[in-house]
């Protein structure tokens, strides 16, 4: 076997509800095993990371974020991060999806590296369920 086809075994711990949702998706999409689904998910994660790493130059974009409003200290942390990046944030919209789940949309403009940095900082917070950065280059 070459290094590209060698398999490594890993062990992971997941909350039951997350694993149940993952299993449901695997069944719907016709995966033959969890391993196949996990490999596909990791490939997708790597592709997304490479794409987001390529965000360079002056850009306009939007960050969409879903988070748990009740997670201890999260609102304060998210506010502090947004204040740290006030120079690139043009506007934000906050919506209450459920009692404890919130959707926030943040309009940003600036250097691609800074746009990527704010998205990654938001993404790293416990209680944040998802963050998506979408950008386009600014053309003269």
Automatic annotation (TrEMBL):
Keywords: DNA-binding, Metal-binding, Nickel, Transcription, Transcription regulation
Span of domain Transcription factor NikR nickel binding C-terminal: 61-136
Similarity comment: family membership: Belongs to the transcriptional regulatory CopG/NikR family.
Cofactor(s) required, per the database record: Ni(2+)
InterPro entries linked to this entry: Acetolactate_synth/TF_NikR_C (IPR027271), ACT-like_dom_sf (IPR045865), Arc_rbn_hlx_hlx (IPR013321), CopG (IPR002145), CopG/NikR_regulator (IPR050192), Ni_resp_reg_NikR (IPR022988), Ribbon_hlx_hlx (IPR010985), TF_NikR_Ni-bd_C (IPR014864)
Protein name (database record): Putative nickel-responsive regulator
Gene3D superfamilies, per database record: ACT-like. Chain A, domain 2 (3.30.70.1150), Met repressor-like (1.10.1220.10)
Binding sites annotated in the UniProt record for Ni(2+): 83, 94, 96, 102
Coiled coil location: none
This protein's encoding gene: nikR
Domain Ribbon-helix-helix protein CopG span(s) in chain numbering: 9-47
Cofactor note: Binds 1 nickel ion per subunit.
SUPFAM superfamilies xrefs: ACT-like, Ribbon-helix-helix
Task performed by this protein: Transcriptional regulator.
């Amino acid at each position: 076997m070459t290094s590209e086809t060698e398999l490594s075994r890993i062990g992971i711990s997941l909350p039951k509800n997350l694993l149940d949702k993952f299993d449901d998706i695997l069944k719907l999409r016709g995966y033959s095993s969890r391993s196949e689904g996990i490999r596909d998910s990791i490939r997708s994660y790597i592709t997304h990371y490479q794409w987001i790493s390529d965000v360079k130059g002056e850009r306009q974009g939007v960050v969409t974020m879903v988070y748990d409003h009740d997670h201890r200290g999260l609102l304060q942390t998210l506010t502090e991060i947004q204040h740290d990046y006030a120079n690139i944030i043009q506007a934000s919209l906050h919506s209450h999806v459920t009692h404890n789940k919130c959707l926030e949309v943040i309009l940003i403009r600036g250097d691609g590296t800074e746009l990527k940095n704010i998205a990654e900082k938001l993404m790293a917070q416990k209680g944040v369920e998802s963050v998506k950065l979408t950008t386009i280059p600014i053309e003269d």
